[in-house]
Amino acid sequence: MKVSEIVAALEAEVPLGWQESYDNAGLAVGNPQAEVERVLVALDVTEEVVDEAIEVGAQMIVSHHPIIFRPIKRLAWANRQQRTIAKAIEHGIALYAAHTNLDSAPAEGISHRLAQMLSLREVGLLEPSGTEGVGIGVVAEVVGEPMSAVDMLAKIKTTLGVEALRHSPIRCDEVQRVAICSGSGGSLIEAAEAAGADLYLSADFKYHDFVDADRMILVDAGHFETEICAIDILFEILSKKLPTFALHKSTSSINPVNYML
Fold first, then answer.
1. Rg for the chain, CA atoms, rounded
2. Which of 87, 83, 61, 81 minimizes the C-alpha distance to 69?
3. Cα dist. 259→96, 127, 165 in Å?
4. For residues 153 and 155, what is the distance between their CA atoms, to the nearest angstrom?
5. CB under 8 Å to 162, separation ≥6 — which residues?
6. 214-258 pLDDT, tens per residue?
7. Exposed e or buried b per residue across 67-77, where buried means at least 16 C-beta atoms within 10 angstroms of its C-beta
8. Secondary structure of 166-211 in HEC code, one letter for each residue
9. Taking 90 as the threshold, does the pLDDT of residue 142 lie above it?
10. In this predicted structure, what is the pLDDT of residue 174?
11. 3 state SS of 95
């Protein structure tokens, strides 16, 4: 199977037209006409992930985060990014990313998956796009009676496997409505407030986001922790579209953020 055929299968489910204007999703490295026997699915493209692809005999890596997000001026093995790209080219490994187009997907979006994992009922999108059902983040509700804020925090920590959960002061005792944005969601705090959320689950909040938090509880569960499920989502998409194709889930996709507890 050719790289272009795998790309077509992915983009039939999560079109590039759904990505944000600042993004760089799609095929970043590789010949569209190259033959592929195995695909490795990962969160990030790192040196370790490329080594894993070489080990399992994969000619293509499909990741959530694009390895080339901003323009690069040289490819001289000067840092981890350059070494990773160069090694992929050297070994004929194509690199493809489904980033904010996957985030925005109506059914397969990562925030939708997080709501499902937390057993919440979706009631809308946090930031809808101009396309029906497409948008960044979700607004969801606890099924039945409200949950205590402490119990909700504990559920998030356990469900997402978070070692250290950052959150703003708890100024509401109960949580009924939850806004969710996987990855960096600081820009959507006002949208979460406007949606009437009691708690906003995302990552990469700044210090003053916590200072300014009023009634709504900000929960920073970590960028990695809120997006590692992208591997399962991409694997499921490819398995559905290419049921007889050889796919591997990366075991080298590890959290680059470490905690000393």
1. 19
2. 81
3. 30, 31, 11
4. 5
5. 156, 221, 222, 225
6. 999 999 999 999 999 999 999 999 999 999 999 999 999 999 999
7. beeeeeeeeee
8. EECCCCCCEECEEEEEEEECHHHHHHHHHCCCCEEEEECCCHHHHH
9. yes
10. 97
11. strand
CB 194: neighbour CB atoms within 10 A?
Answer: 12
User: Distance between CA atoms of 98 and 24, rounded to whole angstroms?
Assistant: 9
Q: Apex CA 178: angle with CA 172 and CA 182, to 5°?
A: 125
In angstroms, the CA 116 to CA 113 distance is: 5
The pLDDT of residue 131 is above 90: yes
Q: Does 152 score more than 90 pLDDT?
A: yes
**Model confidence, pTM:** 0.96
C-alpha distances (whole Å) from 215 to each of 57, 190, 193 are 52, 12, 9
The sheet with strand 38-42 has its strands ordered as 26-29, 94-97, 60-63, 38-42, 246-249
pLDDT of residue 107: 85
For residues 216 and 149, give the distance between their C-alpha atoms in angstroms, rounded to a whole number.
Answer: 11
Which residue type occupies 204? D
State the pLDDT confidence band at 91, using cuts at 50, 70 and 90.
Answer: very high
Please list the residues that pair with 139 across neighbouring strands: 124, 179
- Which letter does DSSP use for residue 16 in this model? G
**What distance in Å separates the CA atoms of residue 217 and residue 172, rounded to the nearest whole number?**
8
The structure tokens listed for 61 are 């890596």
